[in-house]
Amino acid sequence: MTDKLKIGEQEITNRFFTGTGKHSNDSIIPQLVHESGIEVVTVALRRVDLTSPEENILHHIPKGCILLPNTSGARNAEEAVRIARLARACGCGDWIKIEVIRDNKYLLPDNYETAKAAEMLVKEGFVVLPYVSPDLMVAKDLENAGVAAVMPLGAPIGTNRGLQTKEMVRILIDEINLPIIVDAGIGRPSEAAEAMEMGAAAVLANTAVATALDPVNMAKAFSMAVDAGRRAYLSGLGPIKTEAEASSPLTGFLS
Amino acid sequence: MSFYHTYERMKDFDFKIYWDGLGDADIQRALSKTTINEMDYLTLLSPRASNYLEKIAQKAHRLTIQHFGRTMQLFTPMYLSNFCSNHCVYCSFSARHNYMRKKLTLEQVDVEAKYIAATGLKHILILTGESPKHSPVSYIEDCVKVLKRHFDSISIEIYPMEMEDYNRLVDAGVDGLTVFQEVYNEETYQPLHPRGPKKNYRFRLDTPERGCRAGMRNVNIGALLGLENWRQEAFFTGLHADYLQDNYLDTEISVSIPRIRPNVGGFTPKYDVQDRHLVQVILALRLFMPRCGITLSTRESPDLRDNLVQLGITKMSAGVSTEVGGHTEDSSGTGQFEISDQRSVPEIKEMLLGKGYQPVCKNWEPLDGAAGW
Asked: Going by C-beta distance under 8 Å and a sequence separation of 6 or more, which residues neighbour residue A164?
């Protein structure tokens, strides 16, 4: 079965994406990527130090990975656009995850500013993946603007609270004709699997991996769970019923 | 708006009666909550809560890992000038003290900056004594222009300014502001600051707010522990940080927890703040504000700093000199206070890596070099 996720011109087999923040040592990233087969890695441009050979986080991302720079630190559309342009100028490619957060208490995304930035960056030829609170109207606007995927949060960043926004994400999956990638808040592989069973196109988790006792093994676990959830979705999950249904019905003799 | 109204609401609160009335169940209740309110925070600062330090530490450690990972932001201060027009009784820079004052030329700033930047640090905190006459905003702007060649993030710890001046500095490339209230207790504040503009308690108290309004990305506040009852001062510091975070959502608020150190003039603090007291402040603050940055300076000993890495700290200074030009010039001058941890940046990095923490030298990318909007 060939089941690839297409974003922009790229075809992706492994639907588990991860990040580079919060690790105790960036040198763990190559092993983590290699052992779990991860293909897409997001990195905060603000952490990239191009002038330092030892401390440039980009040096730890294996060749062949799809680099997804993000605009972490942006407080409005203008800053997000500037960071995206800087990322491209630094050689990070055309993919950009828009993160506009001006709420340092809960770290919730600003959908309005995100949509403004998305519109501009699509026009400039970026492959735009906006991180948003799951809102159908905003997602539709983003779709119309030409983004490549929509990334709704499962719960606030770093909380490991799981798929708290499940019903809203389900609506986006049903109504938006773009890959829906659940990002933020996913704390356990089982929650990632649940998102995939619902029909999410991919899952991104960073904190759950980076703060695990064994990040490499946790990345592997997520990767496998995402794959399992995807396979279950494609296989067609059985309906959920409120009453038992006998496999030998009592009125079967009538037919 | 002003935090002063919050201060007024609580300034006559009878802390002793509240703390004396707490039982073990109250501490356990505060500890079991997912989010704690200001009275829970006060509970965790109580003498009775000091019996629960290990339990609070376990939770603080978990929260810090969750929100910041095993990372530690590094920075160093750079002293530009030690001229000061205040007469603070506890500070070496006080105008009362008679010694040769210094102010770096822009060429000296460049030399000092090159030396510090060679250590790999990309975040710098520039300091001056509080003398607008000797280090006017135009001088700070000029220094920032020089420093931008070497650093990605420039913070200031200088005299309190009007918002217009902060706007100028933000436009010049300053992204962080540190301002210590020193003492939140208004009655104690006055005799400690007998002469100079720092006498104006309210102007100082509102300074972080002016910084937030001017668009500073990071605002760092704190009390100088030892000048007043540390439990109460820690409480007001936390309330202040919470107030700022609630009202200025897009500013990253952080807190420093400095203890008074030996200084010119030999001022002896009235309150003894022991290591376990400092730990209690850090832990209670972490539970009250899980996403708040907590900064630890080289005022503390290497041994204590090493142990505090896992207890809620998110930013550390490294390779520090508190003298003007102290990194590259003759270091026989007078520093603002005696530092305790003399280790270099590589030594601090090594210590962090040994503890399973990643030293982070760069955590901001200036946007002014990007293509126009």
From this structure: A154, A155, A185
Does the beta carbon of B35 lie under 8 angstroms from any beta carbon of chain A? Answer: no
The Cα–Cα gap between A240 and B271 comes to 66
- What are the CA-CA distances from residue A236 to residues A30, A166, A196, A232, B116 (Å)? 35, 19, 12, 6, 60
What span, in angstroms and rounded, lies between the C-alpha atoms of B47 and B51? Answer: 8
Q: Cβ B365–A160 below 8 Å, yes or no?
A: no
Length of chain B: 373
Spell out the per-residue pLDDT of chain A, length 255, in tens.
589 999 988 999 999 999 998 988 888 999 999 999 999 999 999 988 888 777 788 888 888 899 999 999 999 999 999 999 999 998 899 999 999 999 888 899 999 999 999 999 999 999 999 999 999 999 999 999 999 999 999 999 988 899 999 999 999 999 999 999 999 999 999 999 999 999 999 999 999 999 999 999 999 999 999 999 999 999 988 888 888 777 777 887 776
Closest CB to B69 among A23, A86, A102: A23
- Give the C-alpha separation, A200 to B234, whole Å: 46
B181 in reach of chain A (CB within 8 A) = no
The complex's ipTM works out to 0.86
The helix-helix angle for B53-68 and B24-32 (nearest 10°) equals 10
* SS3 of residue A134 by DSSP: coil
B250 touches chain A (CB under 8 A): yes
Rounded CA separation B290/B84 (Å): 36
Q: Please tell me which residue in A22, A97, A105, A166 is annotated as part of the active site.
A: A97
Q: Is there a contact between B358 and A24 if contact means CB atoms under 8 Å apart?
A: yes
Task: Answer whether B365 sits within 8 Å of A159, measured CB to CB.
Answer: no
Local structure of residue B226 (DSSP, 8 states): T
Taking an 8 Å cut-off on Cβ atoms, the answer to whether A47 and B367 are in contact is no
Q: Find chain B residues with C-beta within 8 A of A158's C-beta.
A: 66-67
Residue A97 appears among annotated catalytic residues: yes
Contact A49 B357 (CB under 8 A): no
Measure A158 CA to nearest chain B CA, in Å: 6
